[in-house]
Amino acid sequence: MPDGSGFGRGPQARNVLGGTLVPCSMDPLTGWYRDGCCKTDEHDHGSHTVCAVMTAEFLEFSRGVGNDLSTPRPEYHFPCLKPGDQWCLCAMRWEQARQAGVAPRVVLAATNVAALRYCALEDLQAHASA
What is the pLDDT along the chain (130 residues), one digit of tens a residue? Predict the structure, then answer.
C-alpha cells in the first residue's frame, strides 16, 4: 500500500468517516508508528487501526485471549493501559471483542479507514465514543 492511498502513513490517511485521520492518543503514545495516530502500512499485520477507549472489561478480555495490555513492557516501550486510555487497537482484536460482547468504544475520527477490512462501519458507529 503506497502512502497517499488512504490506508498508509502519509498525509492522505483517512478515517472511517471519510475525513483526515486525527490523532488517537499522545499519552499514552499510540500507533503502529508511535506517532499518536492509527496509521498503517503493509508491515502492520495486526492492522492497528481502531482508536479504542479502553475499559476494564476489554482489558480483561484481551489478557484472556493472550494479549495483555495491562502490564507495562518497557523493553517494547509499551506502557500499561488502564480504563479510559485511548489506544490504536488491532482491528481484528476489536472485532473479536465485539463478537464476544466486550468491544470498547471507538473514536471514529481517529479510526483509520483500513479498519473496514475487518470491521463493519455500522458496528464501529454503534460503538462510537461520545
Answer: 333 444 555 557 899 999 999 999 999 999 999 999 999 999 999 899 999 999 999 999 999 999 999 999 989 888 899 999 999 999 999 999 999 999 999 999 999 999 999 999 999 999 999 7
**pTM for the predicted model, two decimal places:** 0.90
Instruction: Tell me how crowded residue 27 is: count the other CB atoms within 10 A of its CB.
Output: 9
Nearest to 83 by CA among 38, 52, 110, 53: 53
Question: Rounded to 5, what percent of the chain is helix, strand, coil?
Answer: 25, 15, 55
Whether the bond between 23 and the residue before it is cis, its omega within 30 degrees of 0, is no
DSSP state of 23: P
Environment class of 74 (CB within 10 Å of its CB; exposed 0-12, middle 13-18, buried 19+):
exposed
**Angle of CA points 68, 74, 80, to nearest 5°:** 40
- Tell me the CA end-to-end span of the chain in Å, nearest whole number: 32
Helix (H) or strand (E) holding 106: strand 105-106
